[in-house]
Design a protein that fits this description.
Blueprint (H helix, E strand, L loop, with lengths): L5 H11 L21 H38 L2 H4 L6 H26 L2 H19 L5 H15 L2 H12 L2 H12 L1 H23 L4 H23 L11 H10 L17 H9 L1 H30 L4 H7 L1 H20 L4 H21 L7 H10 L4 H14 L3 H25 L9 H38 L4 H12 L16
Length: 510
Amino acid sequence: MSISSASEKKSLQEVSNQPVLEIEKNGEDVLQESDYTEAEYRRILRKIDRYLLPLMWVAYGVQQADKTGLSTQALFGLREDTGLVGQQYSWLSTIFYLAYMVFEFPSSYMMQRVSVGKTLAVLMLLWGIVVLCTGFCQNWAQLMVLRTLQGAFECTISPSFLLIIATWYKTSEHASRSVIWGTANAGFGIIVQLCMYAIGNHAEKQGGLAAWRGISFFLGAITIVLSICSWFLLGTPREVAWISKEERRMVQARIVANRTGTDAHKNAKWKRDHVIEAFVDPSTWFLFFSVLLSGLPNGGVTSFGSLVYKSFGFTSLETILYNIPRDGVSIIWFLFVGFSCSKWPGIRFWLMLAAIVPAFVGMLAMSLLPSSTSFRWIKFGMYLMTVTANVNGLFLWLFLPSNVAGRTKKSVVSSILFVAYCTGNAAGSQFFRSQDAPRYVPAITACAICFALQFLVILAWRFYLVYLNKSRDKAAVAEGLTSEQVKELGALNAEKDMTDKQNVHFRYTY
């Protein structure tokens, strides 16, 4: 059923006791999916993918390389050249995520009030300069200052991408599209690993500039160039210049059924009731603890993964090369998960649970195996298994555009999510104590425990979301609403900037 006349609008309004919102304020009709044909939607989707996906893939890959490059730099003398002792190296990761957390709140507010794409581009330029300047550092204090600035500037990319995904794509497309740019961590990582191998190999054979300094110059330069491209191409439908006015309306009509709101109007007003709801919603805290428990292992592996590899008995250059198969497995797993989500809706949470199992087994086995180098290939295989859990970080972020409605609530939940993410990653790097080097058995054991706890939290969370959907379905049936009426009313309510709790016709994705 489509809403095409005033009488039909009135009928639906009476049935649901929900006011109908006119989205357009200049006398135009309400946005509906039926405004355009499937052929037109397919054409605009191809254009969106052509512009956004390659750029987001590279941008996300560069961000990950900038953030984790410290682990590879540690293989080539960063700690020795800058005189790091004790837990000072761990603090370089901890301070990064603490700055990430502190500056995420004002960054989210600024993006809502100004521009998502332009804000991200400027901050990308600034963190690129910071990464480049890291190559000039001589001591721990200088590294700490630059890592703090890098965390402050880099904190915007994930919330920016989530807002961009939510304003361009249908809910059913969130997983498959996000998985594509999520593979950048591994895909672009392979490219960067090969470049860093070349830099390290040249430094070992020819001398001259220290390899870790060359890596900083290389990563910083890439980020600076990318920020210029992002300025012109990245943003929400309301912000970019590469679509026409009619195409912009088509994009907004296409996603109106998401029931989380479109980008038709700039919702700059900060709503107090959205803020309160974000803090009392149980899903917020399921998300918080899921992300926290995911961040604890990630924070340690991000900074110490290369050192753990080296502890198996590999050289510095071998460590870089042997990390490439792990990235390759990650790409295959991400693509499989993305394909599965698009083909079989409703399995996202089951895939997250399945991803945790091999990661838990791999971490536990690594902590229990003897230190002898004769076991290094078994340890290599166990560490390879842990890569499956990487997809959960992305899927947890996807909860925001798929299951949180209301612009202010999205911003608040995004900030809460970042607190969990940053707290987990900051604390996770402290699991790895200098006195436990080179195997870091207590830290790896702690990572295995975190995976086990995360499994239980995600399982309970899914049961809760299923309960909410079934309760709302029963209420709709009791009111005599058809599924199509529920869908249309949910879309209309979302355009009033209603939250997922306020909009009784909203349905959660799991």
